[in-house]
Specification:
By secondary structure, this protein is α/β, with parallel strands linked by helices. The protein is built from ten helices and ten strands. The strands form three sheets. It has a four-stranded mixed β-sheet with strand order 1-5-7-8, sandwiched between helices.
């Protein structure tokens, strides 16, 4: 089972030799591709060959590239690895509006519950208020509990003047962490033969990952918790160390289905259970994460 997430910070040449990823940075390092979950390329002087890209895709490795602002701007999604792609697409298209509304209710309830836990772990207030909102989410969230909770949550977590629209280190860290988890979710959606552009709630025609943006919602508080505990309001620079630690969140402990897994394995359970729910047209078996204090999980 893959368990490594590779972060390329300095110029490198990447290639494949004997089913191993070869990283040449003056010295050579080799890693079995079967051990790799993801590769984040955060240096624009890194080069890799087309066979390398193909081999990583064939082995379900999520390959991220970052822009000049060091934020993940693209992720390579493997295609053609599911034997019944058309059947899976048909299942998605045939889900009912009632099913989608119920699923969104479940997702947002868990998201707000995790936000409340995040505040509680930081010794902050408004926990009871968020839990009340979580219990008030209706099918489809037509009363906008999610947006009400977000307004309360971010101001309590990062200060009264905090806004997600401002360019600062806290927001850069949040965006980076969200992008990493979003890419892992999108990869697993494709592995199941589902179309990541077909969302449950998100329906932006310009967004190729609407479904990933649906399923990431209850995972966002893991990034929020890390940022709140590691990036101060007056931090001046978003450092490479911060990026490495955000990538390492993929190894943090997550409670899901009454078990504790790495975040990456929890994502697999969320995506797999979502595909099962679509086939049965019932949300009963949908598995979603519960927030735990940040702790690296032992290898499973």
């Amino acid at each position: 089972m893959a368990f490594r997430n590779i972060y390329i910070e300095n110029p490198a040449q990447l290639s494949i030799r004997n089913k191993q990823l070869v990283i040449n940075q003056g010295e050579e390092y080799t890693i079995p591709v079967t051990d790799i979950q993801s590769v984040v390329i955060d240096n624009l002087q890194t080069t890799l060959t087309a066979p390398t890209i193909s081999f990583l895709a064939e082995n379900q490795v999520a390959l991220y590239t970052c822009n000049r602002q060091h934020i993940p701007c693209a992720v390579l999604m493997p295609l053609g690895n599911h034997s019944r792609k058309l059947q899976a697409l048909s299942v998605q298209l045939e889900t009912t509006k009632r099913f989608r509304n119920r699923l969104w209710q479940k997702i947002i309830r868990q998201k707000i519950e995790n936000q409340a836990s995040c505040l509680e772990m930081n010794g902050l207030g408004k926990v009871a208020e968020l839990k009340r909102l979580s219990n008030s989410v209706t099918e489809g969230d037509f009363t906008y509990c999610e947006s009400q909770a977000a307004l309360i949550y971010f101001r309590e977590l990062f200060g009264e003047g905090f806004s997600r629209r401002v360019e600062n280190v806290q927001n850069a860290a949040l965006n980076y962490g969200y992008a990493i988890i979003r890419g892992v979710i999108a990869r697993d959606i494709c592995a199941h033969g589902f179309e990541p552009a077909l969302g449950v709630f998100h329906k932006n025609e310009l967004n190729a990952f609407n479904l990933a943006d649906d399923l990431i919602e209850p995972y966002r508080p893991y990034v929020d918790l890390w940022v709140s505990q590691n990036i101060s309001e007056d931090e001046r620079y978003f450092l490479p160390q911060h990026k490495r630690e955000l990538v390492s969140l993929l190894f943090t402990e997550v409670s899901i289905d009454n078990e504790v897994h790495t975040l990456t394995n929890a994502v697999r359970k969320t995506v797999s259970s979502f595909t099962s729910c679509c086939r049965s047209n019932s949300t009963r078996s949908q598995k979603l994460p519960k927030l735990l204090p940040l702790k690296s999980h032992e290898y499973e």
